[in-house]
Amino acid sequence: MKKLLLGLLFMSAIFINGTAVAQEVEATPLDTLNASVLEMKHDIDVIKRIKTSGYIQTQFQYGDSTGAAQYNGGAFVPGDDKRFMIRRGRVKFVYDTPLNDKGISTSQFVFQVDITEKGISMRDVYGKFTDKWIGWFSITAGMQNNPFGFEVGYSSSSRETPERGRMSQILFPNERDLGAMLTIQGPKTSNWHWLKLEAGMFNGNGAPGVGGMFQISIK
Q1: Are 107 and 87 in contact (CB under 8 A)?
Q2: Distance between CA atoms of 177 and 145, rounded to whole angstroms?
Q3: Cα–Cα distance between 209 and 44 in angstroms, integer?
Q4: For the chain, which residues make up each domain, given as ranges?
Q5: CA separation (Å) from 58 to 64, 68, 116, 139, 178?
Q6: pLDDT at 26 over 90
Q7: Beta carbons within 10 angstroms of residue 149's beta carbon
Q8: First to last CA, the chain
Q9: 213: closest CA among 172, 156, 163?
Q10: What is the per-residue pLDDT for 219?
Q11: Is pTM, for the whole model, over 0.85?
Q12: Over the stretch 78-128, which tens digit does the pLDDT of each residue have?
């Protein structure tokens, strides 16, 4: 009798447990719809955090002699002293991670290309990572502007003239370089946001010996 009761209890436990598992696994159409909506909302939020921008600058040059050398835009073709060209055709994508509970975006990824009649070339490919506690310290690694002076990193879409000064063209012919940079700057909500310190180490694509940069800038 005891064995029969134990057997019945065992079978009942198996049946109840199997029924509970089946009920947990089985999803209603409403649950499936809610899951799909949540997944779609997440995808839309990711897309909304991707910012796209760009601009085009066309240029006409007239040289004092045929085949003249130029710092920016490349040398003239032998026998030519004038030309039209697309000086810059930029397309830029920026992705920022969501703000944390302290209002800090801890990661930023930037990708920018230059599209001209000469082809497509990469300009910016880097990631910027900010500390999640106070938002004062950032490390930027990849292809980026040299942190030297104010002119190199100042966009040609905002300058008074489309070209940088001759000294910047000589020292930094490509403006960008591969390396890593440390930035110390207060968040935008801080009273110390105007103070910016940058220090970086780069491969050096300009004059010999220009490989490491250190800059203190106040804006």
Answers
A1: no
A2: 6
A3: 47
A4: 91-218
A5: 20, 20, 10, 35, 28
A6: no
A7: 17
A8: 90
A9: 172
A10: 46
A11: no
A12: 878 888 889 899 999 999 998 888 888 899 999 999 999 889 998 999 999
